[in-house]
Amino acid sequence: MLDWIETIDWTNLMIDIGKVTLKLIAIIIVYFIVKSIGKRAIIRLFNRKGNEMSTGRSKTLQSITLNIFTYFLMFIFIGIVLSLFNFDITTLIAGAGILGLAIGFGAQGLVSDVVTGFFILLEQQIDVGDYVTVAGKDGIVEEVGLRTTKIRGFDGTLHYVPNREITNVSNHSRGNMRALIDIGISYNDDIDHAIKVMQQVCDEVAANDENIMEGPDVLGVQAFGSSDVVIRVIGKTKNGEQFGVERTLRKAIKEALDQNGIEIPYPHQVNINKES
Amino acid sequence: MLDWIETIDWTNLMIDIGKVTLKLIAIIIVYFIVKSIGKRAIIRLFNRKGNEMSTGRSKTLQSITLNIFTYFLMFIFIGIVLSLFNFDITTLIAGAGILGLAIGFGAQGLVSDVVTGFFILLEQQIDVGDYVTVAGKDGIVEEVGLRTTKIRGFDGTLHYVPNREITNVSNHSRGNMRALIDIGISYNDDIDHAIKVMQQVCDEVAANDENIMEGPDVLGVQAFGSSDVVIRVIGKTKNGEQFGVERTLRKAIKEALDQNGIEIPYPHQVNINKES
Amino acid sequence: MLDWIETIDWTNLMIDIGKVTLKLIAIIIVYFIVKSIGKRAIIRLFNRKGNEMSTGRSKTLQSITLNIFTYFLMFIFIGIVLSLFNFDITTLIAGAGILGLAIGFGAQGLVSDVVTGFFILLEQQIDVGDYVTVAGKDGIVEEVGLRTTKIRGFDGTLHYVPNREITNVSNHSRGNMRALIDIGISYNDDIDHAIKVMQQVCDEVAANDENIMEGPDVLGVQAFGSSDVVIRVIGKTKNGEQFGVERTLRKAIKEALDQNGIEIPYPHQVNINKES
Amino acid sequence: MLDWIETIDWTNLMIDIGKVTLKLIAIIIVYFIVKSIGKRAIIRLFNRKGNEMSTGRSKTLQSITLNIFTYFLMFIFIGIVLSLFNFDITTLIAGAGILGLAIGFGAQGLVSDVVTGFFILLEQQIDVGDYVTVAGKDGIVEEVGLRTTKIRGFDGTLHYVPNREITNVSNHSRGNMRALIDIGISYNDDIDHAIKVMQQVCDEVAANDENIMEGPDVLGVQAFGSSDVVIRVIGKTKNGEQFGVERTLRKAIKEALDQNGIEIPYPHQVNINKES
Amino acid sequence: MLDWIETIDWTNLMIDIGKVTLKLIAIIIVYFIVKSIGKRAIIRLFNRKGNEMSTGRSKTLQSITLNIFTYFLMFIFIGIVLSLFNFDITTLIAGAGILGLAIGFGAQGLVSDVVTGFFILLEQQIDVGDYVTVAGKDGIVEEVGLRTTKIRGFDGTLHYVPNREITNVSNHSRGNMRALIDIGISYNDDIDHAIKVMQQVCDEVAANDENIMEGPDVLGVQAFGSSDVVIRVIGKTKNGEQFGVERTLRKAIKEALDQNGIEIPYPHQVNINKES
Amino acid sequence: MLDWIETIDWTNLMIDIGKVTLKLIAIIIVYFIVKSIGKRAIIRLFNRKGNEMSTGRSKTLQSITLNIFTYFLMFIFIGIVLSLFNFDITTLIAGAGILGLAIGFGAQGLVSDVVTGFFILLEQQIDVGDYVTVAGKDGIVEEVGLRTTKIRGFDGTLHYVPNREITNVSNHSRGNMRALIDIGISYNDDIDHAIKVMQQVCDEVAANDENIMEGPDVLGVQAFGSSDVVIRVIGKTKNGEQFGVERTLRKAIKEALDQNGIEIPYPHQVNINKES
Amino acid sequence: MLDWIETIDWTNLMIDIGKVTLKLIAIIIVYFIVKSIGKRAIIRLFNRKGNEMSTGRSKTLQSITLNIFTYFLMFIFIGIVLSLFNFDITTLIAGAGILGLAIGFGAQGLVSDVVTGFFILLEQQIDVGDYVTVAGKDGIVEEVGLRTTKIRGFDGTLHYVPNREITNVSNHSRGNMRALIDIGISYNDDIDHAIKVMQQVCDEVAANDENIMEGPDVLGVQAFGSSDVVIRVIGKTKNGEQFGVERTLRKAIKEALDQNGIEIPYPHQVNINKES
């Protein structure tokens, strides 16, 4: 029954095995060289750029990059080795065919999360503690993960936003903010007088409030409302202080207008009476 | 008729069978090694991370991961074995071609559900009993499944949300919540006086209500309405108590304003009468 | 002209035929084994899970699964057999190429319908007679098919909803429902008194109506309207009875408020008259 | 110059031709068998199901199915025959490559139309003369084609809707329809009295109008409007008669309320006059 | 240096050339047969169906179809001929790879335009001079091209609509149109009297205006407005005359109501005066 | 060490080189023939059609077409030559695999821009100086490029619109434009009288303004407003003059109505006073 | 054990190695030639076009192009070399299969960013300091990167916009801007008089304000409001000065109208009083 063993072409088999062994050794050597070069390149990359970012962020990015690189290399290495022994990897992939397609789509979302997360970290678009608007959610950033970013809404809700959902990032914690107030005065009031009064108030408030960086200045007549002439005031404040400054300004202007007899008018209507 | 049997090249056939047998044995060995290593890796992974999560959740995740791993491995194993016997698996896949494509798309939705469900469980974005907003549905989570999440709306409706529909998760049961009240007072009232009265009420309410964690504080003039000056009050409460605290505050502030003769004004209009 | 017949290498042909025959037999055996195992597995699966669902639904699901399994297996079997005779199936598929692509897309919708329908049945998201909201359509479920779900709208319209359109299912027939009433009282009325009166009414109604399961309770001041103070009442009712209970409560509260001289106010406006 | 003809291996050529001929005959036989079986299966399918649908619709569906089947089979047959003569069909397809891709996408829309049209006919979702809402178009169905459905809008416009645009079908011609009327009565009127009067009217109208199938019944207080208490009346009518019945009911109820001195109130407003 | 020429196996070369020549001749013959049959089939198709459409349209469609058919055939013919000489066409296609993909997508839009345009012409959904609504554009059709349809908006704007943008076609020039008028009468007026007056007007107008095909009829009480009882009038007019008829009817009804003392009421409001 | 050189089968090598050389020459010849024919065809095409378009536009289109043709041919030529030397081009493409896929998608947008731009130029949908609405942007066209179209908004903003964003083109500079005015007159005015007065004004304006091409005509009662009867006036003007004509007409009609004592009414309201 | 070494066909091996070496040399030479030619072409391209753009922008674009070119070439070079040694690159790619697919999609977004960014820079659509509207974000451009564009909103928020999100670019810093003011005057005022007064104001303002480039001119009656006749004023200003000019004009016109007794009217209403 085992006669067939003798008939095997041992010579050819030996040559085959020899060739494969040589190739295998070559591959392993190449694998370690590539791995070593890649690792050093990644580390150098992050150390060179390390000055610009916090050490924590830098470390996170470096370890993530190393992980991705290592897994990817290993994956390819196994693929090549397997193909040497004629366990054709395409069969393996094809065997995973339909399933793989489906998983691929699932994984796509994951990869999309990670890629976006990577660039958000790299470009420092978001820091923990920033007040941001992403994917329609307002709030303070609690955590920037590779897959998910956690944002604490102002009503206390915790939003889990998958990074792939983050396209435009609006960061409200980068530099001075604007304070803007629109005040409607009566059509009967003298505009010049009102502007003078309001500018005086603005100057006083600015003198007493160190959160104000620029202005506030009265710009002039912004619009004609149906019952009021709208005057706009604009200033710059320290980051995060804009709402407080706006509240202070509103109160101060309201009181000054009252003292100067300038009216903030209610809606007006002209009634023409007919008897039916 | 059966003469052809003699003409078969039995030697080559034997060699073929021998080769295949050897390969088969190799594959089976590899299969069991990979399976064993994979299983241990998964179990260790969940035990290492097990501290941070409830045992139930951990168990669920571990068994799900094991299942997926086992089925996937078996699928590939069968594919490789079949390809040994030249029942070409690609034929099989191709044979399933059009049908497969269609099924693949169907399965894609399923996989998408499972992948998302897996991460929702892993990252603990949702727990049973949480008050959440997902996919435009508000309510209390009744069940987080691998494919579907059940949410009980506040009107009693049961929402079945496929996990793939869950992108942003807004979880209202994670930490203290904000109580916010906007009160409009008359343009004729003294703003300082009104703020003082309201702050007193807030302090009294806070003293008597243990659900209040911070404040509530009167922030100041939030806006100029068409007939009222809007004053904003903000505080922090225990999770889930924000609506009750808001109701208590509203009633208390209303009564205090009444006692102090501060008006919550109706809409105003200035009528200028002309006779037609 | 037929001399060429003699030149055929009959020996090789015989061997070829022999090989093919052996393979064919092997395939047929495998086919029947797989079919038998698969069938038993499916039946066992449904009998094990059968306790949780109605027998009718279980039967439906089982026969559907068996059908799909059988057709799929037969499809692959034919593919393999054809490939044995070198009627290359890929040619067949490729021959169907462009057409196939198009059909594939068409079939995709169908498969998507069936897959979704399968899970809706399996997870019992919808039963005939349920009041549901799916794909923007409100109504009573008349039929849940594999491809289409029929929903009878409340105005009598029959909606045919392809299952693939069903993502979120909102089922209003699962458990008790909420009755919610917002009543606006005058700014001049005593809130405490109004709440007391309304709570009395609620208790009386609850005592006389067995459809009410919990409450109804007066929660307190929900909002300040432009002309009224809004008081909210919430209760739980038997499923489907919420609208009736709400109507009963509305009438009872209205009458009680009238008797106690508490006003449900019309919109208010303050008119300041100027002569032009 | 033609010496090469002699050098041809006529024997092999003959064998080749013989083989091809045999295959060809085999294919043709298979073709006719498959065609015949398929045709019979289709015809039987439609005759078995024929009871449930009109003969015209059944005939239409049967001939469509036969056409599709025949063209498809012929397409594959030609593909296989061509491949026998080594005019490789994949070259043909590949040659059509870019063009084919583009056409495929175009054809996809067509196939999508036909598939959807087929199911609309099969499931009888739409009949000529039905009042339906599909793809945002309201109207009476004039024609259901395989590619396009024609709907006559109520303003006389003819809408050509490609079947692929038809997802949800809302058919308003399947069963009894609801008549719903909301009547607002004054806050000063006695609700019980109003309901009694309205119910009497409903009963009278129902007695005289054979288009009314159920009710109409006065349900009770549906809502508190800003100036009126809304009472809802609901009934069932024969299909298509709901608008007429609603008009009759509206007129009758209006007249009855007038006779009983129950007011349908105009918007109310409380004016508080201040002199400026 | 040219010794190698002698070593060529001239015999085999000759055979090869001979075979190729034979194949080439066969292909050319097939090409012309297919072309001839195809052309005749197309022409016959259009002549058979030619009765139903204008000769111009028929000619256009026939020449378009012939063009597409010829180009397509030539494309495949060149592909097959090239593959005979082993200038592998797939290389050519692959060489065009990335570029081809991109072009394919571009061409896809073009093909989509042409396919849709073809069916719009074939099914006569649009004729030059029709008043249509397609892709959100209202207007008169100026030209239906294979790629673009030109629509002249009523304000004089010329809209170029790519055919692929045309999904639903709403053609307002196919059959009689509806004239619909809603008239609000006072709550104090007698509904029966008003309906009688309006019906008389309708009958008079219909008698004098030959553009009116059906009605117009007074349907009854369509709705209760906040200040008026809405009466609906509906009629049918010749295509394109609906707006003129509506204007005539509006004027006539207004004048008749004035003469009969029936009021078209202004918005009403009940004012309850309080002194502050 | 170099013994192996002798063992080479020089004869076969020579034959191979000879064959390749022959093929190369053949390809080059074909290349130049195709290029020459293609160029001439393109030039002739543009000269034949050149009458209908400006020389500038024709030149632009011709040079673009020549460029695309030349690059495409060169691309294929290089591909075929490379494949002759067994530097398999598919390897090259595959080597570019993932990168290529990504670039392909990027290029797709570019190609889409160019294709759309080409047709916009060819069909003269847009000319520099036209007033158009494309992709939601209103304005005057400043430049139509192959990739981007520049539109100067009326507020001075310069919009860069990628051509792929241009689907529907609404060109407001093609032919006469409509002037449309809706005037509301009092319910108490005589409609016939008002129409007569307005028509007189229209005729006078038309007589004095050469920008008016047709009408303007008073159409009749367009609608019943809540306080006015709306009369519509329509005319045709030279392109671009519609806004000026509308302003002239509005002023003239207003003045004529004033002179004739016809009222353009303010909003009316009927007040029913109740004492609370 | 090592006997097999002797049995190797050293001659063939040598020939193989020789061939590979020759090919390798050829490839390397080609690589350097292509690289050198490509580099020069790119540099020449940017120097030729360099006049039109700032040197900084030109340098940036040149280095980006060189980088992309170099990486791409190196990628293909490695692929070809690897394929020489039969480490089949498709295996490598296939080995990366599923992962690669996912990464490809991720990279696609990146490439899309870079391609769009490249053209934005090349076509100078955006410069740092421009006031633009892109992707729904208004603001001043702070940085145009290859992947992300930073825009500083007017409220101080920093928007990070991925370039792929930038489709239409609306640049408000390219040329003169329009100042537009709509003023409503009373129906009782003389339109001619009002226009004369307003034109005088415009001329005076234009004389004193060097930011005004054209006009401003009073166009005439733009619309009939419910209570006012709307007069439109339009002018051209230096870029960025439009808002200031509008404010100046508004104030000046308001004051002039006041002096001339022309009324900017409040909303009007005709009240018809009925006693209930």
TrEMBL record, chains A, B, C, D, E, F, G:
The chain crosses the membrane at residues 20-43, 64-85, 91-111. Residues 67-108 form the Mechanosensitive ion channel transmembrane helices 2/3 domain. It is a multi-pass membrane protein. It is found in: Cell membrane. It comes from the Bacteria. Residues 110-174 form the Mechanosensitive ion channel MscS domain. Belongs to the MscS (TC 1.A.23) family. This is Mechanosensitive ion channel family protein. It comes from Ornithinibacillus xuwenensis. The lineage of its organism: Bacteria, Bacillati, Bacillota, Bacilli, Bacillales.
